Amino acid sequence: QVHLMESGGGLVQPGGSLRLSCAASGSMLSIKKLGWYRQAPGKERELVAAITSAGSTNYADSVKGRFTISRDNAKNTVYLQMNSLKPEDTAVYYCAAGIGMYNLQVERTYNYWGQGTQVTVSS
After folding, report:
1. What are the DSSP calls for 54-100, one per residue?
2. Alpha-carbon distance 51 to 56, whole Å?
3. Which tens digit of pLDDT belongs to each residue from 87-121?
4. Partners of 94 in the beta sheet?
5. Rounded to an integer, what distance in angstroms lies between the CA atom of residue 97 and that of residue 46?
6. CA nearest 16: which of 102, 104, 81, 74?
């Protein structure tokens, strides 16, 4: 079993930055990929960024060049650095962990989910 806890969400003005953190605990040796998903009101949940245990990354087109995913294996923590935030980035952001290394963009391949953290971009 793996437990994920997100933090770092909040209210930020357009153009601002936030860093989300996801602390993982439990059977982490089985986890091969970590991802950040988001869900805006009235919309489906979508992948924002993901990273494998080998360090490969995948980003949604809408966040490329603005967001960066990284991981600290010693701390079992994955981060999402979000820069140049836009109002359309407003959503609940979820951390996810998967046993398989592939199919980073396929939501059903993630086995564990956090509770989510709200990010609001507004002036």
Report:
1. T--EEE-GGGTTTEEEEEETTTTEEEEEE-S--GGG-EEEEEEEESS
2. 5
3. 999 999 999 999 988 888 899 999 999 999 999 99
4. 37
5. 15
6. 81
